[in-house]
Amino acid sequence: LDEVLTMSARQCAATGDLGWKRRYDTHVMLLDTAIAEAMTLTPQVASSIAETSQANEQLVAMEAAAFDAIAGGEPGAAIAVLNSADYSAHKAVYAQGVHRQLDQMRSAIAAGFVQARSARQKVWVVACASVALLVVCWGSLIKALRNHISHRNEAERHLHQTAARLEEAAVEAESASQDKRALLARMSLMM
Q1: 104 DSSP 8-state letter
Q2: From CA 39, how far away is CA 97, in angstroms rounded?
Q3: Per-residue pLDDT tens digits for 54-70
Q4: Who contacts 55 (Cβ-Cβ below 8 Å, separation ≥6)?
Q5: Which helix (DSSP H) or strand (DSSP E) does residue 23 occupy?
Q6: End-to-end CA distance of the chain
Q7: Do 9 and 82 meet the contact criterion of CB atoms below 8 Å apart?
């Protein structure tokens, strides 16, 4: 946007056509908005943006003086302002500030990517550990359930064996009881 402003001011000074000023006025607002937005989006580069903003304010003031000279019928004075060493120095400060901001923004973005990658790796590690822990827990649960079923089946088998022995013992006791009654009955007949 800065080059649009510079070229608009220089074209206006060279041609005397104030249509270039209207173009300039439209773009100066866009540049001011972009600078303000950049300060809110990237606070870590605010000092570079402030330096660039100051250089931009100086350039805008010099360009406004050039437009005033053109309106006053002195295009030579306007050209002198726009070609002055002071104007070139402010342009250089502005350009250096923009390049520094871009470098700092690139560094901030790169650092953000590194942090995001690190966070993603940590999430993967935690997820893998969680899955491994879940597999171990399910394995332990299945093993415990199999042991429980095995013990229960063993206990049921033992219970059935005991019940069968008790039933045999009851049958034997009944048989012995009948034998005893029969014996007692014979003995009582013999007596």
Answers
A1: H
A2: 13
A3: 888 899 999 999 999 99
A4: 90, 91, 93, 94, 97
A5: helix 19-41
A6: 139
A7: yes
Neighbours of 47 (CB within 10 A): 13
Tokens of 30: 């866009």
d(CA 37, CA 102): 14
Pick the closest to residue 10 from 87, 92, 82, 95 (CA basis): 82
| Residue 29, CB-side half-sphere exposure with 13 Å CA sphere | 5
Residue with tokens 């607002």: 29
84: left (phi over 0), alpha (psi -120 to 50) or beta: beta
157-183 pLDDT, tens digit each: 999 999 999 999 999 999 988 888 888
Q: What is the pTM of this model?
A: 0.56
Grouping H, G, I as helix, E, B as strand and the rest as coil, residue 5 is helix
Burial of 156 (0-12, 13-18, 19+ CB in 10 A): exposed
What distance in Å separates the CA atoms of residue 9 and residue 177, rounded to the nearest whole number?
Answer: 131
Cα–Cα dist 62/6, whole Å: 10
